[in-house]
Amino acid sequence: MRLRLPISTLAAGVIAGVATVASLLPATAIAAPGTSGGKPAAAAAAPLVPKPAGLATFAADSDQFGSPAAPLSPAQLSQAAMGEPVAAPTTQSAPRAVEKKAGLAAAAAAAQSCTAADFTTRTGADLVAFVESSTTDCVSTLFDLTGTPAGGVFKQSQMMPVAAAFKNRATAYTGDNTNSILQLVLFLRAGYFVQSNYAGSVGGYDATLTAASKAGMDAFFAGTRWKDVSDANGNILKQVLIYTDSANLQGSYLGVYKQLLNAYNNSYNAIPSMVSAVNAPLRYALWRGSWNPDFVQAVTADPSIATTLADFAVNHQDLLGGPNAALDVNAGNDLSRLAGTGTAVETAVKPLVKRVLDASPILGQTGPLYVGTAYQANQYNPGQCSYYNTCNLPTKLAAAVLPNRLVCDNRTLQTQSLSATELAAVCTSLRGEDTFFHNLVKDNGPIPNQYDKTVIFGIFANKTDYTTYSWAIYGNSTDNGGQTVMDPTDPNNQAVTVMYQKSWNVNDTARVWNLNHEYTHYLDGIHDMKGSFGTQTSVPDIWWVEGVAEYVSFTYRGATDTDAMVEAGKHTYKLSTIFQNTYGNSDSTRVYPWGYLAVRYMFEKHPSDVQAMLNRFRVGDYTGGYAVYNNVGTGYDADFDAWLTSCAAGACYATGPTSLFGQSVNGGTVTLTDKSVQTGPGQITAWNWTFGDGTSSNLRNPSHTYAAAGTYTVALTTTDSNGRSGTTPTSVTVLTGGGPVTLPTCTEARTDAMGQNCSRANRSATAGNSDYLYVYLPAGTSTLKVTTSGGTGTAFLYYNANTWASPNAFTASSTSPGTTQSITVNNPTAGYRYLSLYASTDFSGVTVSTQF
């Protein structure tokens, strides 16, 4: 089966000010004690001027297929390149329907009276008092207001008293929310956001409100407590900084942004709200300000903010590859955007852009900074591409990242790491799929006036490089497991299908994840479905679009869709329900396994209906094609249900082995039980397990002990006596680590940085001194195990969650004689944590390991 996540890539969250975000690395990690040193993607084009930021939502990066799409516009790609720290909330671009409130905000609304009427029926001081007494989650629900309620809550006469109250609270700001300043700024931000989306309902905002907003911000930044490096201040500071952007006052606070960015150091990383605050001017104000004439005028008068951005991007490259990489990348993006704000600014900024590009190689850890900076420079300062050496950027990136190529008929394979043998195998697979697909759908060749007769395959070596480079080369979204990007109605469009390899994925040729699924989308779009993707999905036909891609992928490869077999046994949906699938009403299970089941059933039991539907789709008559299966109504439901029973019982299993297994977990050990089945002649003769931590086994029923708690992808490949193979992955979660292990060397460039399931050898210190280290724990870490071994002398091991660990500052310790020590920390919070080896006597040659 394929690992699946929900279709939706956004889950409702809470405001950034009250959300728990992964902790980050403190400044002391620079200089330790005693040391020195320093859904459907064919979306409408993005608006010319981005809207103010909305309520925070959490983006979920999916390993699921992306739906076929038209290429994203440069504006969409530019804005998507502006990121958030890992686990920090992103922001919505438009209000959600009020009835779709979710999570903490909905719970808060239920706990108190929190309706639009509660705000519209109050004015002046009464309104201010109600806002201040409300929870932040209650105020957050106001971001979703539309229509008449939006006008009642956020008309300018309602905003004015709240802006005045914000000024009063800002004047006395104490670095925390004791005077409810956070509720006030959230209300004001919500007003600007909703008014920007529904000006007709809310009415206009004039200079009076702008002046009142500025007075409050001036009062806030005139104090000193906004500079506090604390969680309480970080929560509020971020919201106020976004407020400067919401009110289009970015040009008035360039000095504030510079102070914040220049003050940042790695000590902030221990406080997630402070990291989010530092990102606020980068992600919002300095990005969106470039569309504001007042901001452009301010930057023209004093372009020194560009120096601050360049210094930040170059001096904080240590963030790249870590949870806060977005800060560094956003600084480069903002800098390049500034270069396009006018001739005077360009003169000052372009050497700084080149400085960042020259300091950031395309390949390796600096890749995201280079790509973002170069893309924004090309988009907003294209006349200088020769100076920047970024002309024809997609071609340049593809040449550097995807050097291994093969022309395979009308397909061009551009790949990162495929060998010549693997390239040939992929080409052979695609040629064979052509024949299989045409025999299946019985098309009459390409649909007239459907262009994109050639297709480029972009195949990356892993998900990280796919995310870093593919969007700038191919124009695809990257919050997915691969995507086909094409507009067959455009004679100038070049179809591409983008994907990446997975090490365990022996089911797909050359381990290319969803190779045949994505190619089916291309073939379907040329031979079966006339028009653009938006036209193709103008009726509920996702059961076909995704179902046929799954069906062809599994059936052509002779593999069993084990996800679909599990779902068939559940009998969750009727066929008439699946026929109404859209991306909006269906999760990934309903779209993919159930789409596969529906398409397979229709081909096996009602092929004439499939042909009648496709005959209408091929001439662009989607209403007529929809009528073919919609008019069936519930007529096939009973037969489909009976078919599911036989399907799950084995009738839908592919010839050869189907890998199936059970699991039981005890501590850090998983016991795996082979339940594979053989269909047709032969018998299973070999079993190969990969455990997701770099180890494997050829036993039929192995047990495996993980070094650290976590969720791992276990894959079983079975091979039969006829040479057929089948692979099935699934997730295994262990809550503790255990057992003696030999861990690889940690890969971080800094020698005091530990990592996940790795070690540092040859640690030493003289008596009375300490060897300091740190480790970053991602969100969801349930157990951290730290061990030391080997060498000579006596080294005590100390751990501290908040500052450098020492004999006088620790929350856990191991002080046995010698160098063999062990500490286990259960349920640590996310962030940077601190270790030290204290030399009770001189020690040397000690190995430190971290497992989580």
Question: What is this structure, in a nutshell?
Answer:
It contains 32 helices and 25 strands. By secondary structure, the protein is α+β, with helices and mostly antiparallel strands.
Describe this structure in words.
The chain is 41% helix and 17% strand. By secondary structure, it is of the alpha+beta class. The chain folds into 4 domains: 93-387; 392-532, Collagenase ColT, N-terminal domain (Glutaredoxin), CATH 3.40.30; 656-734, Immunoglobulins (Immunoglobulin-like), CATH 2.60.40.10; 758-851, Sandwich (Jelly Rolls), CATH 2.60.120.380. The strands form 7 sheets. A 5-stranded mixed sheet has the order 4-5-6-8-7. α8 runs parallel beside α11 (231-246). The longest helix is centred in the middle third of the chain and has 22 residues, at 420-441. The protein is globular. Residues 1-47 and 97-111 have low confidence and may be disordered.
